[in-house]
Amino acid sequence: MFGDDADIRQGAKAVRTGRRAGVPVGEAYIGRVVDSLGNPIDGRGEISALEYRPIEKRAPQIVDRKSVSVPLETGILSIDAMFPIGRGQRELIIGDRQTGKTSIAVDAILNQKGKQVICIYVAIGQRPLQWHNWSTP
């Protein structure tokens, strides 16, 4: 069950959609803030998705993956010196509260401006923030 469950009661009729659980995807999502189902929450209107991909998909085999050859610089000298990050890699930032995890992520994202890089920031278990339009045309 994805979406609003307020009207679901015992004995309610369920209808199968015939397709696998998935989310909409596409370039229209670049620069937008969405919830876990791909619904916009930034107040900038609906998003017209061109594709729909299943949420569970088998990952490509290790030998089929392209090796990381281009570095991604966070703009924070101490991090770039100690932890080399490659473009295309996923990075997990974990730590205690109030230790600057979000600041590191936002600084790294802002440092990619003009470098042909698409950054996706995922905040799991966070309270909704007041979203600002950080993107510039």
Strand content: 5-15%
Give the biggest sheet: 2 strands, antiparallel
Q: Any idea what the shape is?
A: globular
- Low-pLDDT runs of 5+ residues are none
Number of self-contained structural domains:
2
Number of helices: 2
The SS-based structural class is little secondary structure
- Can you count the beta strands? 2
- Helix coverage percent: 10-25%
* Spatial extent as radius of gyration: 19 Å
Query: How far apart, in Å, are the first and last alpha carbons?
Result: 37 Å
Kindly report the average pLDDT value.
84
Q: What's the SSE pattern?
A: EEHH
Strand order of the largest sheet: 1-2
Quick take:
The chain is mostly loops and 137 residues long. It has 2 domains: 18-57, no CATH class; 66-137, no CATH class.
Layout of helices and strands, plus pairs?
Blueprint: E1 22-25, E2 51-54, H1 77-82, H2 101-110
Antiparallel strand pairs: 1-2
Looking at this protein, list some descriptive labels:
137 residues; little secondary structure; two-stranded antiparallel ribbon; 12% helix; 6% strand
Can you describe what's shown?
With 137 residues, the chain is largely without helices or strands. It is built from 2 helices and 2 strands; from the N terminus they run E-E-H-H. It has 2 domains: 18-57, no CATH class; 66-137, no CATH class. Helix content is 12%, strand content 6%. It has a two-stranded antiparallel sheet. The model has no long low-confidence stretch (mean pLDDT 84).
